[in-house]
Structure formats: C-alpha cells, structure tokens
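Lab notebook, bench 4. Still working through the backlog of constructs that have no structural model yet. Next entry is a single chain of 257 residues. Request: give me the structure tokens for it.
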Amino acid sequence: MLPTTSTQNSCTLSSRDAARHTAGAKRYKYLRRLLHFHQMDFEFALWQMFYLFTSPQRVYRNFHYRKQTKDQWARDDPAFLVLLSIWLCVSTVGFGLVLDMGLLETLKLLLWVIFVDCIGVGLLISTIMWLITNQYLLKHPSRNFDVEWGYAFDVHLNAFYPLLVILHFLQLLFINHIVVINSDWFLGYFVGNTLWLVAIGYYLYITFLGYNALPFLTNTVVLLYPFALLGLVYILSVSLGWNFTQGLCWFYKYRVQ
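Model written out:
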C-alpha cells in the first residue's frame, strides 16, 4: 500500500503544480498584482528600460532566468507595464501642449493613445506574432514547446518602449523648436523621418531579439526582413518630401475633433 499512497500523493501534487502553471492561473496572478503596487519591482523595471536602449540582449537573458526559476517566459510582475503607461500619459500630455490642444482635447487624445494605440494595437500585434511563431517557426511542434501569448505581449512592450521614447519624447523637442520638423522644408522632414527610421528599426530589432532568444524557435531571421522595406520607405520619403511627423500631428488633431 505504501508505494500506491506515495504515487497518489505525487499525482495530486503534480496536478496542483500543473494548475498553478496554466495560462489562466498566470494571467490571474499578473492581473492581481496590478492592484498591489508594493509587490511590484519598479527598480528592476527601470533597469530593463535602460538596457532596452543600451543592451537589449541583457534584458532577454533575464527572461531565460525567469524560465529556469519560475517556469514561464512571460513577466509575472506588471511593474514594466505600469511604468510604460505613465511614460505614455506624460508624453501624450506633452503632445497636447505642443499642438496647442485644450484640456478636453488632450484627454481625448490620451484615451485614444492608451486604449487604441498601445493596448489595442499591442494585443493585435502580439496575437499575430503568437500565431505566426507557433505555426511556422517552431523547431519541433509539440505541446511542450510553444510561445506563450504573455511572452509575445512582453516582446511587444519591450520593442514599443524605445519607439515611444523616440517618437513621443525626443521628437517633441523638434516639432516647434531647434529644427522644426513639422514643416515642409528639407531639413525638417529629414530629421523627422530619420527619427521614425530609428524608432521603427529599434522596434523590429528588439522584436527579433525577443523571439531569437527562444531556443525552440528556428528561422527567426525572417523577422529582420522588414528592414529592407523600412529602408526603402525611408529613402522614398526623403526623396519625395513625405513628412511622417507632420502626418502624425495632423492625425492626432483629427482624432480629437
């Protein structure tokens, strides 16, 4: 009877452990921590934000450590998302001031940027990448090895942060000051479009690093192919006088009308 009892206890523990590692359990734990700021590690989240600019490979090495210690690739701490939301709010208010928007218009823009541009587009991109990687990039398709949706969302957040800083913080300095990029003269749209090139290039590169860090994926180099299209669009934009920053300013104003 002793071996039977031991086996039953082992099975019970295994089932409980498996239940704690389901997608629903991880999602519940993550969302629950959003209500407890004292449980969030904001210092570590700031460390990640710094290294996403200087050495993004170090950030993804930390994801490896999390997999080894907590048996999941995705973040279990929402501190990074909270800080990203704060930066997004501050930068959007800055855009409202630079574009001479009123209080109500700035509030409308803030809601658009948070719930559509950040959350909505983020959910869409993460889901598409999650489907593509699990469908086409797995070395050995198996239930034991697949890309977590939460990890795909984390990769998007990692890549979105440098883009946010460049286009929503750094670009503000040039819209009406120093070099007026919200204009039709060459230096203006050259500087503005170059900032767009760097920002989107960062997004593509950090996205590639995120999926390349997963040992069970193959042919992740295909995620770098959009760089060719990005370079072509940049050359055309400078040659033909397209001003992406001017278009963004017009789009933001049109949204809040």
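Notes after review: Residues 32-253 form one domain. The first helix runs from residue 2 to 20. Flag for follow-up if needed.
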